[in-house]
Amino acid sequence: MEVVRARLAGFCMGVGLALKKLDALLEDGAERPTFMLGPIIHNPQVLEHYAARGVELAKTSGDLPDGSRVVIRAHGIPRHEEQALLERGVEVVDATCPKVKRAQLLIGDEAGTGRTLLLFGEDDHPEVRGLLSYAGPDAFVFETREELAQHSLDPAASYFLAAQTTQDRQGFLRIQQDLAMRLPGGVPALETICDATRLRQDEAIRLAGQCDCVVVAGGKASGNTRRLSQVIEAVGTSTVLVETVDDLNSDALLQYKRMGLTAGASTPKSIIDDIEAYLRAL
Ligand code: SF4
Known about the structure:
The chain is of the alpha/beta class.
């Protein structure tokens, strides 16, 4: 069997940096209990690894004991929540992805000029909750063009547009065009979209075109991993979604001559390496 591994399989920059910060923290020998606020990554094997090293999971900031220390995951957290933690003496280790941090600061600057934020994103997503905390109280979040079309805009007010980092760039451009039709002079738009997700999907589609089947490695709770198998299926190529090498069934795979391998942005390199070695041995 020939195996073609995607160049971009595995951690994106933000996830890689967040885990490096957590590793550095665990090596400093401090006695304080260490928490992650929400799973730092949607990968059960990585979470088990950190749980075994004593890192506890807090579901909300209210669950964190005073005097503990907490790692903020790549999505970031709302500004007031971070402030409240600092006031309680919680040591906050900020592993917010630099791209998300940049989006938060850009939104804060623009909102500071008196403009109202129109945010293209998922209302209940942790990153969006964080971004909103940097905007004014009238900010509006929408997931689709239709939703924005139904929202009334005041022609006398001034707005600005931004997007959750993982949103689709083409959709964002269409929204800018819609707003240019509705408001004279259009609405200034911030560049906040990260291409990591799109580049992985584009590469998965190319791989699907060259292979009989593509193995996608990643946690079952990882949205970007599931999305990779969906884009592969959408172009008519078989795909197998696995968390680790143990989920592979060699009998089912032997029918394929050319096998692709990709992985979500939260899948560790060691898991991808194991799967690649297994496939090459078939
Ligand atoms: S997908 Fe982009 S913005 Fe999100 S954590 Fe990864 S690098 Fe950062």
